[in-house]
Here is the input.
Amino acid sequence: MSGTDRSLVVVAGGRSRRLGRNKPLVEIGGRTVLSRILEATAQFADAVLAVREVPPFQRALAAEAWEPGAEGAGPPGSVTLRSPTGRALLVVPDPVPDLGPIAGVASGLAAAHGAICVVLAGDLPFVTPDLVDRLSGELAGDAELDAVVPRARGRAQPLCAAYRREVGRLAARLVARPAASVDPSPSMMSFLDRLRVRYLSAEQLTGIGDLETMVRGVDSRADLEWAERRAALSD
Here is the structure.
């Protein structure tokens, strides 16, 4: 697939209560988790970062020499930034704060341009180009599918997966329902239950690295210590 056929959506709208710090902006081996994700997905021409609040990410990226890009390129409240190499990143706010990752998926897919979008949680420091290429390639190769989702230790990983952009409309409807009522926020698993999904096991993804490492997020201090040890060995 060409870079123009695919988009990257990074979901980073959580409050990081367990870690106590904004997870995508935590440094591991001298680089933020977000920088690591963007480096591993440099082959994606279109990139969207879905966040709860835009300013902290705007400031952090500015400290890494990202500059303001074209104005008016996204929804209200969003900003476009451009890296020193010219890569553009659209930072969009969640439509409704605190509704969980489904809100970031909805806003991210709505702002993306590629027909196929790789959606990644913002706390995955060891995702690789091979993994995102494999997921998006599997989805591109089967027009009957809505999504391709890996399984690690028997658990689906909906925030390290490939989706057709059009399913963002369903995500938006799921977000709108609890926002307008007292219903609980829908989970990512309930979202997957409404889609035509191909699940890929670690065995099916042999040859592209250790899946459990690639899908493990930095959600706690223990995770951060693990990630720092891992980075010291591999960077």
User: Anything to note?
Assistant: The helical segments are 33-40, 54-63, 101-111, 129-140, 168-179, 188-192, 211-215, 221-234. The radius of gyration is 17 Å. The chain is about 35% helix and 20% strand.
